[in-house]
Amino acid sequence: MSEQVVSRGGQGDDQAVRRPWLMALAWLWVGIPFAYGVYQLILKVIQLFGG
Q: What is the pLDDT of residue 3?
């Protein structure tokens, strides 16, 4: 019994390879505000428990 790999032939896989800058931009679009929120959370926790 042999296994076959079936390619979907869609454009989604090709576009991800062609546009790595778009993927990086999307991660930055989400990552920067998330990192800022975590930073603010840490500052508030220090104020709350550290005095």
A: 76
9-to-5, 12, 13, 23, 48 alpha-carbon distances in Å: 12, 9, 9, 21, 55
**N-terminal to C-terminal alpha carbon distance within the chain:** 68
Measured between alpha carbons, how far is 20 from 38 in angstroms, rounded to an integer?
26
Q: Give CA angle at 12 (3, 26), nearest 5°.
A: 130
For the segment 11-49, what is each residue's pLDDT rounded down to a tens digit?
555 655 678 999 999 999 999 999 999 999 999 999 999
Query: What's the Cα-to-Cα distance from 17 to each of 10, 21, 35, rounded to whole Å?
Result: 13, 10, 27
